[in-house]
Predict the 3D structure of the following.
Amino acid sequence: MANVSLKKVVKRYGREEVVHGIDLEVAHNEFVVLVGPSGCGKSTTLRMVAGLEDISDGLIEIGGRVVNALPPRSRNISMVFQSYALYPHMTVRENLGFGLKIAKQSDSEIKKRVDEAADILGLEPYMERLPQHLSGGQRQRVAMGRAIVRNPDVFLFDEPLSNLDAKLRGQMRVEIKKLHQRVKTTVIYVTHDQVEAMTLADRIVIMRDGYVEQVGTPSDVFDRPANVFVAGFIGSPPMNLLDAVVASAGGRPVGRLIDGVDVPLPGDVAVREGQEIVIGFRPESFAPRGYSLHGAENSLAMTRPVLIAEPLGTETILFAELGGREVQGKMLNPRVVKAGETLEFTLDLARLHVFDKASGKSLRG
Amino acid sequence: MSASLTMEKPWQRWLIRFGVFVAMVILVVPGAWVVLTAFRPNIEILARPAVWIPHQLTLRNFQGIFGLLTTQPGLPVVQYFINSLVISVTSTVVALAIGMMGGYAFARYRFRGKGALFLGFMLSRTVPGVALSLPLFIVWARIGLIDTELGLIIVYLAINVPFTIWLTDGFFRQIPVDLSEAAQIDGCTRWQAFWRVEFPLARAGLASAAIFAFLTSWNEFALASQLSRTTASKTLPVGLLDFTAQFNVDWAGMSALAVLIIIPALVLTFVVQKQLIAGLTFGGVKG
Amino acid sequence: MKFLRSPRATPYLLLLPAIVVILAVVLVPLLVSFWTSFTGYTLTKPATLFQFVGLRNYQRLLGNADFWWAFARTIMFITIALNLELVLGLGLALLINKITWGQRTLRTIMMFPMMFSPILVGFQFKYLFNDAVGLVNNALFDLGLIHEPIAWLVEAGLANFSIIFAEMWMSTSVFAILLLAGLMALPKEPIEAARVDGCNAWQVFRHITLPFLMPFIYIALTIRSLDVARAYDMVKIMTNGGPAQRTELLWTLMTRVGYQNSQMGMANAMGYISIIVSIAFTVFYYRKLTSARAFMGGAQ
């Protein structure tokens, strides 16, 4: 059993605190992704788990054993670095076998396990090459191979795909997923890319400024963002967020936007009149009539000129003005739309997100 | 290059070539003349009117300074040569070890007083050797290090350590920290990670740092001339000065000795040509 | 004891040998010499090491014409040598940069003088400028330009010229090589942009090339100011400050006073002044370097 647990983990550089008491439980064989903008403390947290940074306060346990004082080599972890960190003076074979050699494994055992890893990752043709003669994708594979060869309790990934181009990134994402299905191990994966987080994770940990903003499954954080930050961070194109003030129209609470449009608020939202709120809706929830994802019942209709249309094939992103801001809508199975054309949009009220403006917290029950 | 951008007229091109040619002649001829002199008999060197094209070349001058001829007693050049070699090699090896440790500390660790310490090391290099020789003479005389090889070795350590630190700091900085961390995750201690990963990668750089240190010691004069007294510790550059102090200036013998001093420098500089330029610009422009 | 075992101690432990060496060979002797510069220490009379005389050495120096001549000559020497080397080195780098063929060979040739230690350079020019057997006089004779030998190393003006010439032969290459490296790193686009904007060759040099080279120029000056005192070796063998102190520099004067006249206290006072001069030049160029780098928005 190799679960990882972080208890009130703090990191300070001198007087500056960069990670503020993080609590996290990673179950055995779970794939957990730490995601957040750069400087949010996700890499620092990972490096503390790895033992590359010392822990200023709190406890980290791997498989029930406190590892605070253990050096990296005694934690039975492996790590894939953003730069891959392949040893430039060793061949692929030597890179893969280095950890086993340090652990004084027999040559035959090293060869067996290295060949196994090479087979999983399709590295056989490159075994005698130096890293400098490999492509980016191949290097990435070697880095992963080096991690799996040692058969660790926990895999740590530090932005492993950020140096690849978009296409290769997509491919490697799938491979990492396959790898995890094949080599069942606990994984902690750090990235700033929310698409990677959504596609790979069993659970996502969204971090900002050294705090955990929300922990949940991909659908949790997508459908029920705990606060404005998570709402804006997860999803592409991002959620539209509009300032509003709670008012009452026909006995029902509405959010009054800056341009005077009243948006009826869902019944499960606890608000008081005059409260400043942020209304959020995903582009999928704002579509021209007849082109929406969930149909048009319980929706607010409005006529708006299209400012810009970005056709993407299966869908077209439309920009229109609402609440004094530019908002994005998504038109599914689109027809050709020209800028300046006036369309009737429907805003799906069932999928509205409401946040308190002052605290940023979600107001949905 | 900008040559492709600015189209010179033919006469400009020839002017440029002529300018470069003259500069190269000025740079090469003095040294070449000394080398040539080392292989010419004294009669030709002293001939009047001057003999420009040598009629014969000889190794007699070298035999002379090594005391292989009966006619000239010469200087104890062999002993000087051995002193130079022992002092230079020892101080290079030790300076490299000490400098490598220091450079690694500066490249890899954050610690209190880092900036001040680095500045301190660099400032220690601005002290002119000749100004340093006075107090060193007093101190070394008190503790019995005057005219010993050890005395000079210690002094050259101090001259070479700051520069070695500067160079190795740069070399280690070029090696990503990730590599050492990856090695530690792979099961190495920090010590193993250094020897297995960082050291092999820095080897070329360290070799050139060693050559710089060797050349500095090999060529040093100001301190050696004051801190050595006898054949026990005198080095070749000091020997060269001794030559000029003799009653009859033996130009051929001196030239031969000069050639002896320059050969290692020539070979080693050639070896580290590329690193020499890199070393000069290091930490300067590229950061 | 606990601190020594903690990881925070590692960098200090790594630096310890280096610090010890510098302390023993540079700092302690400098403190000793600082002390002796306030004593009447004479080598032949060890007891005088503790004979405190206050500022007497410095007062005597400031009132001594020989010292002032050597001081002025040293400042002049450093200033003239560094500036001429810079100008010639820049010119040489620009010329070589124009040559498309055999650049590497030319660069190797330029390194030739850098292989010579100062003592060798001094010997070489002592030989070349020798009035009886020197290459220079021989050439002038055979070209029929002179009929009496010129005493290059004896007449004041000529001797100083010869020394500066030797110094330049030794060090112009340092500038040329560094600036050539700078020219090679020069990005093409700004030059092309300037040409499109209608700049002529001089304007391109003045407004694009030169500002880009400034950090290289200052780093060359900084490096050179570090070891400019090595010229002592050269002067020592060429003229030893003579004849009759016509080429006396601070460095030769201090060894004469210290070792020959045994007046160590006085010599150390001079040594201190020469150290301050060296540091002043280095700091001056280093600050120029930092500001030039900041201006270029370069690395660090």
Summary: Residues 2-65 of chain B form one domain. The interface with chain A takes residues 176, 178-179, 181-190, 192, 196-197, 200-201 of chain B (CB under 8 Å). Residues 77-108 of chain B form the longest helix (32 residues).
